Amino acid sequence: MNWVNAVIQGILLGGQYALIACGLSLAFGVMRIVNLAHGDLAICGAYLGLVLSSALGVPVWVTLPLLLPAAFAAGMALQVLLLGRALRHGVLAPVLVTFGLSAMIENLLQVAATSDPRGLNGGALTLASFTVGSVTVSWLFLAAFLTACAVLSGLQLALSRTSWGRQVRAIADDLDTARLVGVNVAPVFATVAGIAVATAALAGVFIGTIGTFDPLAGTNTLIFAFEAVVIGGIGSLAGTLIGGIALGVTQVVVGEINQAYAVLAVHLLFLAVLVVRPGGLFAAHQAAHEPRRQGALG
Amino acid sequence: MSLPALEVTDVAKSYGAMSVFSSVSFAIAEGEAVGIVGPNGAGKTTLLDLLTGTGRCDAGRVLLHGKDVTRLPPPLRARMGLGRTFQVPRPLGDLTVFENALVGAMRAAGLHGRAAYSAAWDALGMSGMTGHANAPAHSLRLLDRKRLELARALAMRPRVLLLDEIAGGLSDPESEALIATIRAVNSGGTAIVWVEHVLRVLTAVVPRLVCLADGQVIADGVPSDVLASDAVRTAFLGGGVL
Amino acid sequence: MTPDGPLLEIAGLDVFYGDFQALFGVSMSVARGCVTALVGANGAGKTTLLRTIAGAQAAERGVVRYGGTDITAAPPHRRISRGIALVPEGRKLFPSLTVEENIQVGAVAAASGAWPLERIYDAFPMIATRRKQRAATLSGGEQQAVAIARALAAAPSVLLLDEISLGLAPRVVEELYQVLHGLRAAGTTLVIVEQDLSRAMDASDQLVCLLEGRVALAAAVTEVTRDLVIAAYFGQGRS
User: What is the CATH number of the domain that holds A218?
Assistant: First the structure.
C-alpha cells in the first residue's frame, strides 16, 4: 500500500475538483447564484472540445484558444439573458432556473450526441508519465493540477490587484452600497459569469481527457464541485483549492483500501465538515445569508 | 388605590459594553394611554422587548398588574394580558383577515372554539376591519395591514397593548383613521404604551408622553410640556443656543 | 444648462417602500456652492430623500434635476459621473477591503480626476497612515472619514452626507466638519443631514426640515430661529 503515491495522486485529483469548483464559488460568493447547471456546462465544454478537435483534427489543447472565449461568451450571455433576470425574483429563482437548464442541457446532449461515453483527444500528453521514487505521475494529471493552481492564483491576483477585482469584492461585501458608490454591477456580473463558465469548460476538457464523459456526467461533477466549495468555505478561492484537495486525497486514499468506499468516503467527509464547521474551513465571514448580503471574497 | 397596569422600576440593559438603559422607571395606570418618544438609539424598541419578555433585563423589575413578570417568558406575559404589535405588519398572507385575528385569539390567548371566534370578531370590530373579514390578508393596503396587526393583538384581549411605530407611512386621511381606531381601542379600557416617531399622530391620542434619552427617562408628562422642555429638545436636536 | 439656475432641483417627489409612502411631494432647490442642512425626526424621510437624489431609491412620481438635466431615471453610477455622490447613513464601508481599496472603488465612476489619492490623504491625515488596513478594523471616526473620502474620490460637485456625526465623539465630529468647511470654501455644494441642530445651522446656508415625509420648513439660515425649526421639527402648529 503506497501511501505516498496515493496522497500525491489525491492532491493532483484535487486540482481537477478545485478547477471545476472555482466557478461555482465565484458565482455564489459574488452574485449569490447557485448554478445547478454548472456541472453540465463543464460537460458541454468537453463536448465542444470534442467537436472542435475532431473538426480541426488536432488534440483538444489546440482548440482551447477558440473554446475558452466561446465558453466565456456563453457565460456572459447566460447571465445577461437568463440569470440576471431570474435574480430579480429573489435568490431562489436562479436555483430553479438552473435546475431546469441542467435538465435541458442533459437532454439536448443526449439527443445531439447519444449517450455513448466519449473521450477527448489529448495527444501525446494522455499516456505520458514520469516516475519519482515510488510515485508515478501522469503528465496529464499534473497538467490539470498545475492549471488549476494557475487559474486560481490568476483569479486571486485579479481580485486583489485590479480595479475589476476591487469592484467584485465590494459587490460581494455589500451589493447595495457598491451600486450606490458608482459600481456598474451588471457588466461585473456578466464577466464573473463568463469566468465561471470558462473555468467550468476548461475543467470539462480535463475531465474528458483524463476519463470518459457522457451527457449525464454533469450531475456527478456538480456534486463534487459543490462539496469542494462547501468544505473550503464559500467565497474563498484558496479554500476551494484546499477543499478540492481534501476531496481528492480522501477519494484516492480510501480507494486504495477499498475502491467501493472511495466515493462514499468523500461524501462522508463533506457531511463531517458541515457538522463541525458549517461555514467551511476558510470561510471569510461566518455570516448567515441575510437579506442584506454580508460576505467577502478573497 | 389600584395597582398600575404596567410598572417598570430601575430597569437596566446593556449589550456587551454598550449600555442602553442605566435606570428607567415609570408606571401606567389601567386604561391609560402613554406615548414613548426619544431620539434615535434611545432604546425605545429595546424597552418594548423588555416589556414583552423578548429581551431580558440586566437589572430592575417589570410588573404587570402588580405581579413581577421580570423572569416570565413572552407567551406567559401574553396570557396575562400583554399584547404587542410589530413595526412591520406581517400578516399571514394566505389566510383571510378573520383567520389572522383567529390566530391571535387561539395562539396568544389560548382560547378555543366559540370563545376564540368571539374574541377574533370583537377584535376586528374594534379595529374597524369587519368589512374585510373574508379578504385574503395579502390583498390589504398599508393602513388595513396596520389595522389587522392591531386586530391580531387585540384578539388576545389584552389589558395592556404595546404599539411599535404603527403610524409611519400613512397619508393624512389614513392617519386620521388610525387615530380614531386607537382612540376607540383605548376607550374600550385597554391601556396603551405607544412607541412612535410620528409625533403629530401620537399626541392626538395620548395625554401623556415619556421621553427616553441617554439611558433614562428625561421627561414624563403632558405632551406640550415634554416637547417644550429644554432637556427633551437638547436630546433630539443637540445642545447650543442660537 | 443655466449657470445661474439651481445646481440641484427636486420637485414633487413621491417615494414608496411597497405601499408605505416615505416622501409626499417633496420639493427642494440647492444653489451651486450652497450648503443645505436637512433636519427632521427619525422616519421623517431624510435618508430616503438623499438616497433618491443619489439614485439608490426610485421615485414613484416627481423629478430630480441636476444642472438643468432631468436625471430622475439615471442609475447611481451615471449620477456619480455627473457629479453627485452620497456618503450613506451608517458609513457602509466594504469591510473586507482596505481603506485605500474602499476609496479606489469610490473612484470607478468619478466625474473627473480632481481628487486623486494623494489629495484625499492630505485632506484626511487621520486615515493616511492606515491606508493598507482593512476597513472593518478602524475606529468609528476613522471609518466615517473613509466613507467621506470614498465619496470624494468620485470628484463630486454635489456631496450628500447622511448623519456623519452619529455615534462619534464631539472632537472627532469637529475634525470631520473642518474638512467639510474646507470643501465648502473650495466651492463644493453640500447637503448635510445632521441631528445636532446647532451644528447644522452653523455649517449651512439654507435649512430644510422634513416632517413625516413632507417639507415642513425651507428657508435661508439667516431667516430662521431655533424655535421656528423646533416647531417644524415636532410638527407643532400643524393641525
Answer: 1.10.3470
Chain A nearest-CA distance from C226, in A, is 34
Q: Do chains A and C touch (3 or more CB pairs under 8 A)?
A: yes
Crossing angle for the helix pair C170-185 and C140-152, to the nearest 10 degrees: 10
Spatial contact of C115 and C155, defined as CB atoms under 8 Å apart: yes
Structurally, how many domains does chain A consist of?
1
Our CA-based measurement puts residue B167 at a distance from the nearest CA of chain C, in whole angstroms, of: 10
User: B55 and B166 share a domain?
Assistant: yes
- Asked if residue B41 has pLDDT above 80, the reply is no
- Indicate if B231 and B134 belong to the same structural domain: no
Q: Is the CB of C86 inside 8 Å of chain A's CB atoms?
A: yes
Which residue of chain B is at minimal alpha-carbon distance from C39? B237
| Residue B21 pLDDT | 87
B126, B157, B188 - which closes a domain: B157
Number of B to C CB contacts under 8 A, please give it.
68
* ipTM given for this complex: 0.91
Closest CB from C41, C201, C238 relative to B197 = C41
Alpha carbon distance B201, C216 (integer Å) = 16
Q: Are residues B169 and B148 in the same domain?
A: no
Q: Do C234 and B197 touch (CB under 8 A)?
A: no
- In our burial notation (b when 16+ CB lie closer than 10 A, e otherwise), range A240-267 reads bbbbbbbbbbbbbbbbbeeeeebbebbe
pLDDT tens column, C75-91: 999 999 999 999 999 88
> Does pLDDT of B242 surpass 70?
no
- Helix, strand, or coil (residue B223): helix
| B241 vs C contacts (CB less than 8 Å) | 198, 226
State whether B197 and C17 contact (CB < 8 Å): no
Residue A294 lies in a domain: no
Q: What is the CA radius of gyration of chain C?
A: 17
Provide mean pLDDT across the span C89-100.
94
- Measured between CA atoms, the residue of chain A closest to residue C89 is A177
| Minimal CA separation from B67 to chain C, in Å | 35
Residue spans per domain, chain C = 8-234
State how far residue A167 is from chain C, nearest Cα, in angstroms: 6
- Final residue in a domain of this structure, among B107, B136, B157: B157
Whether residue B111 is found in the same domain as residue B221:
no
The residue of chain B with its CA nearest to that of C210 is B198
Q: What is the pLDDT of residues B198-227, one digit of tens each?
A: 888 999 999 999 999 988 899 999 999 999
CA distances from C167 to B40, B96, C92, C125 (A): 10, 44, 14, 21
Helices assigned H by DSSP within chain C? 46-54, 76-82, 99-106, 117-123, 125-128, 140-152, 170-185, 197-203, 226-234
Q: Using the beta-carbon criterion (under 8 Å), do C88 and A180 form an inter-chain contact?
A: yes
In chain C, whose CA is at the least distance from the CA of B204?
Answer: C239
- Helix, strand or coil, per DSSP, at residue A289: coil
Q: State the smallest CA–CA distance between residue C110 and chain B in angstroms.
A: 33
Query: Which domain, by its residues, includes B209?
Result: 1-81+159-242
Interchain pair B237, C211: CB under 8 A? no
* B152 and B49 belong to one structural domain: no
Which domain range does residue A198 map to?
8-113+134-276
Contact call for residues B144 and C20 (beta carbons, < 8 A):
no
> CATH classification of C8-234 is 3.60.15.10, yes or no?
no
Q: How far apart are CA A16 and CA A143, in angstroms?
A: 10
Q: C43–B198: do the CB atoms touch at under 8 Å? A: yes
| pLDDT on residue A189 | 95
Q: Please tell me the total count of domains within chain B.
A: 2
